[in-house]
Amino acid sequence: MTGRDAHIQLNNVMWSLIHELRISVLFPLIVLLAIWNRRVTIVALASLWLVGEAAGCFTQEGSILASILDTAGYILFFATGAICFYHRQTLAATAGKLPLWATAIAALVLMAIPAGAPASELFYGLASVALIGAAIGHEKAQSFLPPLLICG
Questions:
Q1: Residue 131's pLDDT is what?
Q2: Pair 37, 62: CB distance under 8 Å
Q3: How many other C-beta atoms are found inside a 10 Å radius of the C-beta of residue 150?
Q4: pTM
Q5: Which residues of the chain fall short of a pLDDT of 70?
Q6: What pLDDT does residue 5 have?
Q7: Nearest Cα to 112, choosing from 122, 126, 124?
Q8: What is the DSSP string of 74-139?
Q9: DSSP string, 39-64
Q10: Cα 108 to chain center, whole Å?
Q11: Most distant CA pair in the chain: distance in Å?
């Protein structure tokens, strides 16, 4: 469970479990930060993501340090999910003011960014937030986005 490439070659799904295990240890702190101040949390964790991405350019691919830097970047997405849940009424109200078709098209455009493109994961995260917001903020969307209602 080190996250090194050599340790996950037999089971490719292990890369995800490694990050989830590390983040689960920090998750209570992530939730407290999300409750305390969502703006500060997003800025701080986006900065951590940026530092992790920049430092990742100078680390050996497949090393433990590279894996830990990847985990640092994924923390942003877990925190965003916690913020979306804790502030779901605000998200629903904000998304409810936007045209459903515009939200859906914007999300689809963001999801169409090729994997591996710079900051593509951030765009996928934004698209996910937009779709969750649409699902909980628009009654019309609830008929064709029911699985996303679980998130909200």
A1: 86
A2: no
A3: 8
A4: 0.77
A5: 1-12, 142, 144-152
A6: 60
A7: 124
A8: HHHHHHHHHHHHHTHHHHHHHHHHS-HHHHHHHHHHHHTSPTTSTTHHHHHHHHHHHHHHHHHH-H
A9: HHHHHHHHHHHHHHHHHHTTS-TTSH
A10: 16
A11: 49
